[in-house]
């Protein structure tokens, strides 16, 4: 099964990517990454790690800019 925890997810190039979930914070993803938004547009980052906003409060969505700290 492709989503089985015992089988690591692979990128098209065969590399394993790590995603770190935080309860009260952003989702950390090893880069470089491309993110497809709801409207079908794609944004990308060449950084070694990116923080994706999960609360939608970021002024730079989908990238986290810690705006959630002001309102949490």
From TrEMBL:
Q: What is this protein called?
A: CDGSH iron-sulfur domain-containing protein
* Record bears the keyword Metal-binding: yes
Ranges for domain Iron-binding zinc finger CDGSH type come to 30-72
Q: Which SMART domains match?
A: ZnF_CDGSH
Gene3D superfamilies in alphabetical order: CDGSH iron-sulfur domain, mitoNEET-type (3.40.5.90)
**Keywords assigned by UniProt, alphabetized:** 2Fe-2S, Iron, Iron-sulfur, Metal-binding
Q: Name one Pfam family in it.
A: zf-CDGSH
User: InterPro entries per the record?
Assistant: FeS-contain_CDGSH-typ (IPR018967), MitoNEET_CISD (IPR042216)
Q: Look up the domain of life of the source.
A: Bacteria
Organism of derivation: Streptomyces cellulosae
């Amino acid at each position: 099964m492709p989503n089985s925890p015992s089988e690591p997810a692979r990128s098209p190039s065969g590399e394993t990517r790590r995603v770190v979930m935080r309860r009260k914070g952003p989702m950390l993803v090893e880069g470089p990454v491309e993110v497809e938004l709801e409207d079908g547009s794609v944004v990308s980052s060449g950084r070694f790690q990116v923080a994706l906003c999960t609360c939608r409060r970021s002024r730079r969505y989908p990238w986290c800019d810690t705006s959630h700290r002001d309102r949490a």
